[in-house]
């Protein structure tokens, strides 16, 4: 299927295609994302459970929820959501990610509907979900407002969108670009463009303008001493995440 | 026919069943394989050891719902006295004294006999619907693939699991089959273990005497009974163990004097060879090691079981958190969290016990003066003393939720 009418920037897609095969290598290029993943999942699962009043101690708490993972990559978030019982559609504009994600899901014994498409194309087709995961995508799109408008259309009334990105300030430039791309070589140089980063206030304004209600904002904080990530309600200076709902 | 479970534990000691209960209570299905027949395990005379459970271990057992059946069989440890001694002589002028009254958490720990702890674990496992027990069977083969592990038993049965846990002791087959090597050495020391009845009350005080051939611990059990762990050079230990009961007591008596009055043997005598043995990695693909399979230590400070229960608390927490987040519980990302949490702590503890043993199992007069002064300094400084007490109680560092007495 051809990704049509889109806000995806062609150069951005090519960069990720080059990295696709490395998605599931524990010591490969995506190691930083794997390190961040438990922290992201902790936030996502507790927000979903809270919003829909679910009991997290049962084996498949998300059974009955239809969930879309935009920019699913190798399936780092789609697989956990499917394991928790959600019916998952994973969408990625980079075609080469999809075979990697499909093969891995099959190896893991999980059923996930991976599609080579975009948020805009799915919105145009009238698809709707209880949950839209929109993680580390908005800083890579050409037109954030048009993209978030599409995300809003993809939510059922009462639905939940989780959206994470990177703040724009001197510290985030130092940490996310100089630190992660040049010093630590965690990410290939050129992964991020600092002028595409968005402050929490700007993001919440865009989300509100799209017709959603922001309900939470939380920081992902890297601690260089423990070499791990944690959630913070105060420190949103570099990586952060927001939750918003669609009025029913 | 292949039976499938989330977790398969090899080893029916104390760490394996504790982990099985921690995971099964949170909804995971667990199969546990014990090479020994159930009747052997249930026999009260099978294992003569007693355990000094740290406060943290006590909290873990309480969080698993096991303490109710143990409480009236456990002796609170209220004080620990450490003395540098030599057979036939009084204690050296310098010594260390740790009193639970100096920390607010309660007793420093509890003494529990193996013959009391084991039936409680076995009964709790039998009552837990998520646990399948297979006893009297050994695992002979394990094959890892991308979705799980197939384990073959000595009768040809195969079992399938997402994660294989080796809780099979210092000569762990799970570890060897996973291609993990071990490092370590023998001490040429053997622990002589017995229980004694004594005339005078022990008042909940544990004593540790450091003697040139090896440490002697007198640990309070219920009533006027104490557990004796007595390390000697292996040739000496064999000679002592060959003596009849009366002569055995005659050898023991001068080693700790008459502060408990008349003493006599209560029950059987046991011997355990001492060594240190640490797995070079605590994890491999879809495999994790806990307890002595990961780190077998010198029992000088009674930290072996406590360290094993720390593994249980850490691994259970890592796995249950991963499960609730939807992660593959056996992925390398998840298992590495367990290894990072435990390996440094367990290895440094093992090496500290090793250094302790080398420092104290020694008759060099200079070392003797040095360690006596060291103990005098620790004893004179309340803050340092409290640090030792909290360390011994397992209250320091990044403590797993179960060891803080919390539910997972």
From TrEMBL, chain A:
GO terms for molecular function: 2-polyprenyl-6-hydroxyphenol methylase activity; 3-demethylubiquinol 3-O-methyltransferase activity; polyprenyldihydroxybenzoate methyltransferase activity. Pathway: Cofactor biosynthesis; ubiquinone biosynthesis. Its EC number is 2.1.1.222, 2.1.1.64. Keywords: Methyltransferase, S-adenosyl-L-methionine, Transferase, Ubiquinone biosynthesis. It is an enzyme of class 2 (transferase). SUPFAM superfamilies: S-adenosyl-L-methionine-dependent methyltransferases. Belongs to the methyltransferase superfamily. UbiG/COQ3 family. O-methyltransferase that catalyzes the 2 O-methylation steps in the ubiquinone biosynthetic pathway. This is Ubiquinone biosynthesis O-methyltransferase. The gene is ubiG.
TrEMBL record, chain B:
Residues 5-345 form the FAD-binding domain. One of its GO terms (cellular component) is ubiquinone biosynthesis complex. Keywords: FAD, Flavoprotein, Monooxygenase, Oxidoreductase. The keyword Repeat does not apply. Pathway: Cofactor biosynthesis; ubiquinone biosynthesis. The keyword Flavoprotein applies. One of its GO terms (biological process) is ubiquinone biosynthetic process. Its cofactor is FAD. One of its GO terms (molecular function) is oxidoreductase activity, acting on paired donors, with incorporation or reduction of molecular oxygen. Pfam families: FAD_binding_3 (PF01494). It comes from the Bacteria. PANTHER family: UBIQUINONE BIOSYNTHESIS MONOOXYGENASE COQ6, MITOCHONDRIAL. Belongs to the UbiH/COQ6 family. This is FAD-binding protein.
